[in-house]
């Protein structure tokens, strides 16, 4: 991965919350856990496209706000008995900055940070 994009300071993402990064093609939810783990998933539940960025973060899981499916933050997979998977993206933290790994698709992938949620 050689296309790391600086999206925010770690402290701009509330613990147990998320920020949404809009790209040309997809909204990406970037989550921060209670232990400062950072994960990035497509902001769309594999069930009926609920906004995962508005879910409840606990451990390494987010609970979808619509019907309470539990989605693993690392893999994007729904936890049993539910089935499905949303796309996960590479993310890293260096020197207090959060970087999202994106495959460039025609340039100008990341437009803006649009919201934060505690
Ligand atoms: S849309 Fe997420 S649980 Fe239904």
Can you count the beta strands?
11
Across the major sheet, the strand order is 8-4-3-2-11
As for the number of domains, it is: 1
The N- to C-terminal Cα distance equals 30 Å
Architecture in CATH? Answer: 3-layer Sandwich
CATH class: Mainly Beta
Order of helices and strands: EEEEEEEEEEE
Query: How would you name the CATH homologous superfamily?
Result: Rieske [2Fe-2S] iron-sulphur domain
Overall pLDDT metric: 88
Would you tell me which CATH topology applies? Answer: Rieske Iron-sulfur Protein
Give the biggest sheet: 5 strands, antiparallel
Radius of gyration: 13 Å
Unreliable runs: 105-109, 111-116
């Amino acid at each position: 991965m050689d296309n790391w994009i600086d999206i925010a300071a770690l402290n701009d993402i509330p613990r147990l919350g998320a920020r949404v990064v809009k790209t040309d093609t997809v909204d990406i939810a970037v989550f921060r856990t209670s232990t400062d783990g950072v994960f990035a998933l497509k902001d769309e539940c594999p069930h009926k496209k609920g906004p995962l960025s508005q879910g409840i973060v606990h451990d390494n899981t987010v609970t979808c706000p619509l019907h309470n499916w539990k989605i693993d933050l690392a893999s994007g997979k729904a936890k049993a008995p539910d089935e499905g998977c949303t796309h996960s993206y590479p993310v890293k933290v260096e020197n207090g900055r959060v970087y999202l790994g994106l495959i460039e698709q025609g340039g100008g992938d990341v437009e803006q940070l649009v919201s934060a949620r505690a």
